[in-house]
């Protein structure tokens, strides 16, 4: 169609006998034929008009009508720079002609993604019946939070945020959550995750544990069944495996440590929320070693080295735990530790803190200048993958005694040093540098009106983690790819060295073949020996004879 | 993204998280207009923001008659006073690739050193902006045309991609001088228009999957994010000529990409 428009363009030139520039000449191949025809007829207006009105194509189109329509359109619309867009206008007219014809066959309207989403979004705006007036609303004032976040230069857009607020409200109602907040958003390759953080409601913990136990039992049963079947199939007994895997570090109890909160995830506000499983130390440790983008499908497998135990839902949960532990901060003094009250139970893994009722608020200018006025209020995750260290040696030694191997290991692990992280409410100024980059960047939201500005803290370790503080209010939010800063470049860990097939010893090692020289020497030595022996024997005989 | 429709455009790309606050938006609206007049640009784009550890660089890009060739980049700390970045030379690019490591500091006079090569952060900024423009700046197909004189200009009659077109990466083009024009089969050539398809197609990029294409904003805005330069976002409102790209990030290329897909 555009080529046709181009040729028409040049035809317009030649018919109206305007001077043709050089570039136009090159595109004259097609119209030339027509001009030849027109040369045969006398060059007067009526014959030219007749030529233009000729219908050569199968449709009812002719150039005369088209040009009139085009000129009418130009005079009607009077666009700027008609020269530039005349081809497109001509193209449009031609297309509209085709569309007129098409209308005889009504088209089935296509349903686009936007249509389907609009139906889902409509449900968010439907007013649900208020059952009873709750004293404590489960949701924080998200409009206020998003306003402050916008001051900080962070946000998801006002309209989108409104939808998220409505979706959170829906979640809190349907799941009857006692408290729920917007944790943030993690971008994926195909979809993005909107993440809500909620506290467990009473009684839920037991349900969860029961469910998990059930699922564990099922998998164990399956495994034993599979083993039995294998044994039946094989005639010869399988060689026993000497490899003794380290026992997995147990998960932290629900409501403590890395499993303190429950997380719900949805791809788009209005679509159903999905609950994420609890996180295990093995998953956190594997997540530390890999670097993967999220796809946006919770069920998709994580293909990586070292292998990740679980699917993307587990990976997402592990990253959330790591980000929360690393970047959730609050103004100093907002929380106070409640360890003083129950010193006897200080060893308990209950790393919790309570809101300080006497907190006065720190002025924004001070918050924006000193890192020591910000403190971590989420427990640090230890190298073990748990927030509270668990002594695994008891179990280990029991295993090892049976085998009677790895004595050295046993000796080493007899009295392991407990891993200790920084205590709760440690100022962020004590955080370690990462790849020569300071871990935090402090800013004031406005340089022109600093009196009412908000203090903003951006993390450089987890880029995308932000916190703001204004008076007594503060909030943390993460919006990003869910990846830690990796410095120069990531190199995946190397695979373990291959296991020995058999213990090497004198019985098995093959002797080296002797060289020719060695053989010669050996023979010479042998001969000498024989000679000397003969001598000895001879002398012996002599002695015997003597006796 | 065009300075004229900045507020609206920023709302469309907000899904990536980083954004500008109201004060900065208001300042940009004023200063970019003055910038356009003083430097006699045809068009001024707000290019994006490079996050330094101490300060942030705001970047504006002025464009002349030929949208691809005549580009000038300027930077600012407060969105009001703009400074022109130096033109790029081969030596500068080499020095940056050797010496410049880690995050931007936020101080243009800071000197990166490695062995004998030295490079100032201002030069590094110029080179990184050039690299991002070369590798990750994208436009929807048909948004720009090359006219008879070879000038690349905004296509006035661009009506936007349809919802079905917007789901295919082949409808997005690299906005740079074409580098690897792949030989196409005649069947594929049938739909191509030399006035529009003079740029490289994004779907030919290596490795496959270095772009994330999604529909956001209730399914009406098409968002294209670069995974090679995380922070670069293209938005295009379907069936309208509105489109633009912005970069808000640390200015570091994601070299780990092959491991991460």
UniProtKB/TrEMBL annotation, chain A:
Location(s), subcellular: Cytoplasm, Cytoskeleton, Cilium axoneme
Protein name, UniProt field: Radial spoke head component 4A
Region feature Disordered, mapped onto this chain: 199-249, 331-363, 400-427, 524-547
Segments of skewed composition (Acidic residues): 203-235, 338-347, 402-418, 527-547
Matches recorded under InterPro entries: Radial_spoke
Top-rank taxon: Eukaryota
Entry keywords, A to Z: Cell projection, Cilium, Cytoplasm, Cytoskeleton
Alphabetical list of Pfam families matching this protein: Radial_spoke
One GO cellular component, as annotated: radial spoke
GO biological process, one term: axoneme assembly
Gene that produces this protein: LOC101061520
From TrEMBL, chain B:
Predominant cellular place of this UniProt entry's protein: other
Subcellular localization: Cell projection, Kinocilium; Cytoplasm, Cytoskeleton, Flagellum axoneme
PANTHER family, A to Z: MITOCHONDRIAL RIBOSOMAL PROTEIN S18, RADIAL SPOKE HEAD PROTEIN 9 HOMOLOG
Top-level taxon of origin: Eukaryota
Protein name according to UniProt: Radial spoke head protein 9 homolog
InterPro entries: Radial_spoke, RSP9
Record keywords, A-Z: Cell projection, Cilium, Cilium biogenesis/degradation, Cytoplasm, Cytoskeleton, Flagellum
Cellular component GO terms, alphabetical: kinocilium; radial spoke
One Pfam match: Radial_spoke
Family: Belongs to the flagellar radial spoke RSP9 family.
Signal peptide span: none
One GO-annotated biological process of the protein: motile cilium assembly
